What does this fold into?
Amino acid sequence: MLTHKQLRYFVDIVDAGSFSLAAERLYIAQSALSRQVKEMETQLQVPLLERGTRQLEMTPAGRSLYADARQILRALDAAALGARQAQRGIEGTVQLLHSSSVPLSPVLLGALRSHALRCPGVAIEVAQASSEHQALDIAEGRADIGLARAPVLRRHPGVGHAPLFDEPLVVLLPAAHALAGRARLRLAELRAEPFVALPYRERGGLSHAVAELCRAEGFEPVGAQVRSRKWSQLALVQAGFGLAIVPASMAAQAPAGVRALPLDGEGCRSGVLVLWREGGPRHALALRESLQAAFAPSI
It folds into this structure.
């Protein structure tokens, strides 16, 4: 029977892309790793890795084992964590994801604080992930709850979603920009302006929404010379590289030297979805309910 150590070594070798790099990361001899893989192949009576190739490649059996081993190792890690938490009186941990365009606003932080007070035995671990990747992470058990910008284009079985809130989109401009003195702007006025976050319809989330709005106005956004789809786009606007269209909650955290102007036009709003794994842990679903209750007036 394969051991936990063998599964861990095999996954580490594949993730590293070579025996030598895996051995360096694990602080063990490369020969020891090779011996473990050979023992696994002997037990299973199938080859797991291709020999004689310049790059590390898995056989069909190796790919199957790799996928299963990752799930087994995650389950074992979760079981060990659950046991330690239970001993300390912690009921469980909720893995909460949010995209960079869904900042930890005062309303969101207030909802998390209220939930934490009601459920003192539940820990909440917050991390960032793109709107498109959150559903996959939840489906595969790496996360419990997601806060994603609509639309999420790729659906995964067993992952539920519901509107949480929506808010206006605004345009961020350098304070010295010629349009910065205006009270409001129309999207069509931005057709010749460089965007520091170039939107794409294929990506889903905020990127998809902005690309669709621009397309409806008859133009494709022009990319700035220096671009970013992450939080750093605010700094790029401040530095004068171009403009960005972002949700109001994100604009509220823009640095000094950036002007936020309302956008006129139909559909210049952005929605946030809450994602969850159907049949997931009770404490995770309780957090989803708390978030929905906190934002209910805005739906």
In short: The radius of gyration is 24 Å. The chain has three domains: 4-85, 92-160+276-298, 166-270. The chain has a mean pLDDT of 90. Residues 4-85 form a domain with the Arc Repressor Mutant, subunit A fold (CATH 1.10.10.10).
